[in-house]
Amino acid sequence: MHIRVSLSVVVLAFALHGLGLPQSAFGQDKGSQQGSFHSQVDLVSVYFTVRDDKKRLVSDLAQDKFSVSEDGRPQVIKLFAHHSDVVLNVGVLLDTGTNMSWILGEEAQGARLFMKHVVRPTDLGFILSYASRVETVQLPTSDVALLEERADTIGSGGAAIGLQDQGLSPEPRIGMPGSGGTVGINGRPINENREAHLYDAIRLSTQNYLASEMGRKAVVIVALSGDSRSESSMEEAVGALLENDVIAYVLQIYDASKRDNCDVLHIYQEDGHGESLLKKLAESTGGRMLEVRGVDKLEAALDEISDELHHQYSLGYYPENKNWDGKFRKIQISAGEKGYKVYARKGYYANRPAENVAAGH
């Protein structure tokens, strides 16, 4: 099932403890799994990007400019590469739970141009939509023309492939209390009857289309509102991303209600420190959250992500700590130049190599 993820609200109650993840899995201590670009199962690999103090991508740094540590202990970099030509598997997840045709049109245009810019003959792209159900707009393919054609059906209200159409059965519904609020950021009352199966889209797209793939994996999440009535829990959605080394980019749409009295509302939720939980979620996987001030700015935001995906590095090291206890280990990558910021997954879970082999790692 193809999923385009739109993530706009994360309930504070699930910020840390409720997700079943260590506190280190968020903020500066977020977690991720071992990479898979090398045959050695005890090799920890990380894909990452670098930006300078003016937020410009930096893609020409040599290995000796970087250092990596695990739980504060320096590690020896054994593999290093610029990965602009490594296979990319990417899904775009679209929130289509609105009757405003202009919004659907903007989403369709953005997804179409993103796939045109980012997917090369060796890559795979897919598109999903979600509202009252998660639907596959296009299965993974390297056919850019087909991806563009199918993206256009979002704007025209064309039919997509639902879960049952692919022979997939949703799991029993899991109640998710407190997934909304009472007032959006524009002071308008929230339509509590609106369905947005965000968590389902994340988990099912990751498990069905990315878990078995090699190389770089990413989902681009376009959010009109928060999750509502998913059959999957927040815990399951985040766990799927972390367990399968998927980088998540969140595009959080703001202020769409100012045009044509749009009834799509937005909730901005924060953790106990006043920080965006969605930003923390994205950065835990090595991605970022971009605030999109109006759906008409979506195309520019997607272009920014496309550029970033084509300017990645990777490094690998064999951890000195050989105690495979399944615990979360923090990874920190530093660039030698002052003012450079590295965007990378924040760690991994130290499962035994035999378990990683069984899991396809």
What is this entry, summarized?
By secondary structure, this protein is α/β, with parallel strands linked by helices.
Walk me through what this model shows.
By secondary structure, the protein is of the alpha/beta class. 22% of the residues lie in helices and 24% in strands. The protein has helices at residues 101-118, 144-156, 198-210, 234-243, 277-284, 298-309, 353-358; strands at 44-51, 66-70, 73-75, 77-82, 88-95, 124-130, 134-141, 161-162, 216-223, 247-254, 289-293, 313-317, 328-335, 341-344, 347-349. Strand 2 (66-70) and strand 3 (73-75) form a beta hairpin. The radius of gyration is 19 Å and the shape is globular. The two termini are 22 Å apart. A seven-stranded mixed β-sheet has the order 8-7-6-5-9-10-11, with helices on both faces. The protein has a four-stranded antiparallel β-sheet with strand order 4-12-1-14, with no helix packed on it. A four-stranded antiparallel β-sheet has the order 3-2-13-15, with no helix packed on it.
Keywords:
disordered N terminus, alpha/beta, 4-stranded antiparallel sheet, 361 residues
Distance between the termini: 22 Å
Main β sheet profile: 7 strands, mixed
Instruction: Give the DSSP E fraction (strand runs of 2 or more residues).
Output: 15-25%
Radius of gyration: 19 Å
Order of helices and strands: EEEEEHEEHEHEHEHEHEEEEH
Residue windows where pLDDT falls under 50 for at least 5 positions: 1-40, 161-190, 256-269, 355-361
**Chain-averaged pLDDT:** 74
Helix content: 10-25%
Tell me the structural class: alpha/beta
For the secondary structure, the number of strands is 15
Q: What would you call the shape?
A: globular
The largest beta-sheet arranges its strands as 8-7-6-5-9-10-11
Number of H/I helices: 7
What kind of oligomer do you see?
Answer: single chain
